[in-house]
Design goal:
Layout lengths: L1 E10 L2 E11 L4 E5 L6 H8 L7 E6 L2 E2 L5 H6 L2 E4 L11 H8 L6 H14 L1 H5 L10 H13 L5 E5 L7 H16 L3 E5 L3 H7 L2 E6 L2 E7 H6 L1 H7 L4
Parallel strand pairs: 3-8, 3-9, 6-7, 7-8
Antiparallel strand pairs: 1-2, 1-4, 4-5, 9-10
Helix pairs in contact: 3-6
Length: 235
């Protein structure tokens, strides 16, 4: 579904992504793990058109998308749920969800999808008229995921969904990721909580300072001594 071949991305003089290649097959959850500053968010921003690669190829569903605008990429079904939630604070929950469906014209289906989001996240239903800036961190994360789902993603890019959340909420967010995947959405997950990410993913890539240093099935990486020491707290 997604094929990244040898992409290089710079922030000014900083070589942020150095010859990255990876694939995501339809129906998979693939996770990218790595320390802060490894280049994980940079990669997602490049995939969604917010950053332009200096060289290399990005193919989504067989078509080249490197250098396309973010709008054109969203229209093809590649949807980015950004780090830090980025909800529109002075708009209601419902308005945020409507914005997720901005490019869609099928109004009856949009209503149906919104009801689906409220079924998945009942707390958002209770707060549908509330300003999003007044929600808790966990509720804002649910809203950010719900808003992304309103665009009917074929591939969902999820950037640090568990960041800053209490452990109970973290478990809920990861259950949601599994459910979304079971219902047919392919997911590329960036996550610092490597333990949880490897439990829900099929395959994983490890990013260190802009390079992929390891890849394999999630189960293999969860057992790797190198990964255990670096990312799983040594046990």
């Amino acid at each position: 579904m997604l094929k990244i071949d040898n992409i290089n991305v710079y922030y000014g003089a900083i070589h942020a992504l150095q010859g990255i290649s990876l694939t995501v097959e339809e129906g998979e959850v693939v996770t990218l793990i790595g320390a802060n500053g490894a280049g994980k968010s940079t990669l997602l921003k490049t995939l969604s058109g917010l950053l332009k690669p200096k060289s290399g190829e990005i193919k989504f569903l067989g078509k080249s998308i490197a250098g396309l605008s973010a709008t054109a990429i969203v229209a093809q079904g590649l949807i980015h749920c950004p780090e830090g939630r980025r909800v529109f604070a002075n708009m209601s929950v419902e308005e945020n969800l409507e914005l997720g469906a901005y490019l869609r014209k099928d109004h009856a289906e949009i209503r149906k999808d919104m009801e689906g989001v409220f079924e998945r996240f009942p707390r958002l239903l209770e707060r549908r008229k509330q300003q999003s800036g007044t929600l808790s961190g966990g509720e804002q994360q649910m809203l950010a995921i719900g808003r992304a789902l309103m665009a009917r993603p074929k591939l969902l890019l999820l950037d640090e969904p568990s960041m800053g959340l209490a452990p109970l909420l973290v478990a809920e967010i990861f259950r949601t990721v599994e459910e979304i995947n079971r219902q047919g959405t392919t997911v590329l997950l960036v996550e610092q909580n490597a333990n949880q990410a490897l439990k829900v993913a099929h395959r994983a890539y490890v990013l260190e300072t802009g390079k992929i240093v390891l890849s394999g099935s999630a189960a293999e990486l969860a057992q790797s001594e190198q990964i255990k020491e670096a990312y799983l707290g040594g046990h």
